[in-house]
Structures are given as C-alpha cells and as structure tokens.
Design a protein that fits this description.
Layout (H helix, E strand, L loop, with lengths): L5 E5 L4 H11 L3 E7 L16 E5 L4 H12 L3 E4 L5 H4 L4 H7 L4 E6 L14 H8 L18 H26 L3 E6 H7 L2 H8 L19 E4 L5 E4 L4 H10 L6 H4 L7 H12 L4 H8 L6 E4 L2 H4 L3 H6 L2 E4 L2 E4 L23 H7 L4 H10 L3
Helix pairs in contact: 1-6, 2-4, 5-6, 5-7, 6-7
C-alpha cells in the first residue's frame, strides 16, 4: 500500500523504530540511519525488519552530508531523540526542509517538543500516568499498571506518529509543502481516552477506580481457573450476559439477574471467582468459546500463536527463529506477507549511497576515513 514512499529513520529506541517497522510492513522503503559502531541486536530486533540500514558517524561533517542527501530524496523522516538533539547535530527541521520542502519531519517524544517537562526523561508508564490513560488500569484498591509499552509507546506514540506522517505526506503531495509532526506520547495516550471520556461524561465512568462496568463489574473481568490458567469474560450487553448465565446454569439466580446493580458487583465477582476456579481453562474454553458470551482464554504469546483462530488468520509466525506478528491492518485481496529480514547495521550502505549518486571511489574513501 505504501510502495513508492520513502522514509528515513534515525536510530532510536522503542516507539520510533516501531513506527518505522509499521510503515515498512505496509510497503514503504524505510532507510535506517544507525550509529556507526553501535551494538547489533541481531534477529531479536524485530522492529528493524524490512528496513535498509546504513551506519554513519553523525559527528562527522561528511556523514551529515550523506544524511542530508538521503533526506533530500525522502518523503518523511522519523526521529525520537530529546528536543534539540537533532538541531545540535545540524539535522533539525530547518536544515532538513531546506534540502527538501516536501519533507514530513516526524518527531516522537514522551512529553512533546514544548512544555515544562519536554526536556526531562520518562518512559511509557510515566506518560500514560500523566495523561490519565493509566488511571483505570487496575482494580479498586490495587496499583494501576498499564500494559507495558502498549498504551504509551505503541498506542499513544508510534501509531499517532504514523498517522501524522501519512497525513503530512498526503498534504505535501497536494501542496508541495511538508510539515513537522510533533507526536507526543502524552498527547496520543490522552487522545485515546476520548472513548472513555464519552462514557465518563454520561456518568458511567467515575474517577473512583474499580467502580465502572469496565473495571469493576463481575461480568467484565479475568478469572483464575482450577489449573492456574486465566480466562476473560466481557458480556456488557444484556443479551450476551443472559447467554453467559445460561451456560453457567445461573439464569434463575436473582442476584445475577440484576446485571447493572453496582452494589452487588463485589459479591458477584467473588461468586464468579469461585465458579471459574472449579474447572480448568481448557474446560471453560470448550464450554464458552465460539458463543456470544464474549469470552477468550488469557494466553501467553507462545500459546496465542497456536490458537486455532490466530493460526487460521496467520496472525503470529516464527520467522528467522523469532516469534512475531505479521503486518496489520489487512487489505482486500492481499494476505499479509511473511516478515522481512532484520538488517545488520550498515548492510545496505553501498546501494543506498549509489541511489543518491555516490560513486564507488567515494564510498571506499569514506570507509577508509571512518565515515561509514
């Protein structure tokens, strides 16, 4: 879908590389500029799959010129350094867009390019906490713990940067003018809360953790089974809830009939916990999976790969000796391609340089000088 789009990505951690991987999965030509002499994570670096790599010493003026030449032929750029670092390298938005007016300069940080926290360190859990996105990630009286990297780095960061870059490219192709994308994880994770804010505005999502249908109800929770495995249920709607009660032989129980009576949720949650502890996870899966009770077993990643639904759709696959998810989303008439290889640092230097007009003699000289 993104064939013909070229992205230059400057080596970073976490959400920036994930964004580059997502765009590469969808067919973009992603050129990764890595630090010369940096560590090679090998096949475990799934976030590098499908990219082409060139390793440069960006403190060297010739290396900066190479980077700017690559930028000149790119539609967009990804960088995830602290505000000001790219400017100090001479590769900030002004320098980059002076070479390429159509460039979409994608900047990904935790706190954003501006604001009192913009130059301070942080991680996923901090950004999700400040934005409000971590508040409901736990039960009443327990510590809120958002899923590692998913709410902040990936959801609020990488995916919002990808949307910003693609929107910027669309506008640049219409107007000839690029833009700078300020993708802050704190912004994106806050924006993802709007669906819950609509529920909150309707009075169904109080600030007190563990008191709403989504974080306190007996019918929207995970339960431990007799074998130590876990299952999840989520029949929010009465018709689905009624089917669950029927499967559990509880249709005639007056307490369970009052689905939305919040005063009964703690006691009913305990009863569900006792009931689900009487059988193994596989037993509950045989009884409830494939029905409309809104059920799924809680699976470890290795188990998820073997589940019939996941296998039928080919969601997860072991490629190059590493379990990983195939590209998403999907498009009509095209099955997800197998994961592409992970490049070694600098693997594609010669072909990338040739594409920007550098001859073999100059490449050899730069290698001898330590530029590459």
């Amino acid at each position: 879908m993104l064939q013909g789009v070229r992205i230059v990505e400057f080596e970073g951690l976490g959400p920036g590389p994930f964004c580059g991987m997502l765009l590469a999965d969808l067919g973009a030509d992603v050129i990764l500029i890595e630090r010369k002499g940096g560590a090679d994570a090998g096949k475990a670096a799934i976030y590098k799959r499908g990219k082409r790599s060139i390793a440069l010493d960006l403190k060297n003026d010739d290396a900066k010129k190479i980077a700017l030449d690559i930028i000149a032929s790119s539609d967009a750029l990804i960088e995830g350094l602290r505000p000001g670092v790219m400017e100090r390298l001479g590769l900030g938005p002004d320098e980059a867009r002076a070479r390429n007016r159509k460039l979409v300069y994608g900047r990904l940080t935790g706190w954003g390019q501006t604001g009192p926290l913009s130059h301070t360190a942080g991680h996923d859990i901090n950004y999700a906490s400040l934005s409000g996105a971590a508040w409901y990630a736990g039960s009443e009286g327990e510590a809120p713990v958002p899923p590692p990297t998913l709410v902040g780095d990936v959801g609020g960061g990488a995916l919002y940067l990808a949307i910003g870059i693609l929107a910027g490219i669309m506008r640049a192709r219409e107007t000839g003018e690029g833009t700078v994308v300020d993708a802050a994880i704190v912004d994106g994770s806050a924006h993802m809360m709007n669906l819950l804010y609509s529920v909150r505005a309707a009075g169904a999502m109080p600030d007190a953790r563990g008191r709403s249908m989504l974080d306190g109800a007996h019918f929207y929770s995970a339960y431990e089974c007799a074998d130590g495995g876990w299952i999840s249920i989520g029949p929010l709607e009465p018709k689905f809830y009624a089917e669950l009660l029927e499967k559990l032989d509880l249709s005639a129980d007056a307490d369970f009939a009052a689905q939305y009576d919040g005063s009964k949720w703690p006691a009913l949650k305990k009863r569900f916990a006792e009931i689900f502890k009487t059988r193994s996870r596989d037993d509950w899966t045989k009884l409830l999976e494939g029905t409309d009770v809104c059920f799924a077993p809680v699976l470890a990643p290795s188990e998820a790969a073997a589940h019939p639904h996941m296998k039928a759709r080919g969601v997860l696959k072991e490629a190059n000796g590493v379990l990983q998810a195939l590209a998403a989303p999907r498009f009509d008439g095209a099955a997800p391609a197998d994961p592409k290889p992970v490049p070694s640092p600098g693997q594609h230097a010669e072909e990338i340089l040739a594409e920007i007009g550098v001859d073999d003699r100059a490449i050899a000289a730069w290698r001898e000088a330590g530029v590459l």
